[in-house]
Request: fold
Amino acid sequence: MKSIYMDHSATTPVDPDVFNAMIPYYTDIYGNASSVHSQGQKAARAVENAREQVASLIGASPGEIIFTSGGTEADNQAIITFMSSNQKQGRHIITSAIEHHAVLHTCEYLVKQGFELTVLPVNQEGLVEPDTLRAALRPDTALVSIMHANNEVGTIQAIPELAAITHEVGAVFHTDAVQTVGKIPVNVKDMGVDLLSASSHKLYGPKGSGCLFAKKGVRIGSYLYGGGHERNMRAGTVNVPGVVGFGKAAELAQQRLPQNQAALKDLSQRLTQGILDAIPNTRLTGHPVHRLPGSVSVCFDYVEGESILLMLDSYGIMASSGSACTSGSLDPSHVLLALGLAHETAHGSLRLTMGKDNTQEDVDYVLQVLPNIIKNLRLMSPLGQ
Reply:
């Protein structure tokens, strides 16, 4: 049976070159990067080399990169420590209704601490309208956090414009770029962002490694307390192999980005059109143009997302759904509801996200299998009769 992985927005396989770059830091160069002996200094140099590689990928300076355990920690550090350190600037936060829970739940935590939150709606394509942001800004707005691209529907936000509007009132702009770094061009200077979160395992690096970009002059603090690691910005022994892997993945992503981006755009267009042509009562979710290459998000009427996933998996196709059913919740995705979809429609969602190793043959196989799966599931549904 074929084995086709189309869940790259959830995680990616570690690239063989990344894995090989990490091995010595598990076996031969195993020192603590904070130690003064030769082992420790070799590890420290490897960390700084990785810092340069990650900084180069996003157009930052190495000194603006703080390594974390991943995107979630980076989001938490950006939002919590900035708001805690800059309360004289204001206690009002703005975010959007389709953010990852790493942002939404962090903002909700701060509300319990007495901060104020505005959650912006999005349009039917998942975009934050610039005028909506402008209308929500207040003199006491300190931080705006809008993700670069949505993890479920793939919509890419107009971050340079949103950041510029934010700066009009002197507020700071953070973006969760976990889904975009390494997939599309990301340059912190061109985007005008002050804080940016990224994660290694979304770009063929190891899990457990990520970073927070903090523009020079933006005051944040340490999220974890203990030792003075990461220039006193993150306590805890540095995950040297993970950081090295992140650095190598960033280097490879920068080299391969134009080729991968073009190939994934072609594959996603082929897959999207094939699904819409072959399966009636299907809709594309997210923006039709301004979306991540390789990302296909659709909703099928009269079926349930978890059933689609189980059937696809029986054919060797691994994908995901915007529905939260697999987490034990009966509620559909908050993202799809924010786009204005009805509950019953949102429950029939499917996300197929491709990576650098997917092929046209993979797409053709999905298009061969998926229509019959949806047809059979609809035959079993009282709504699909």
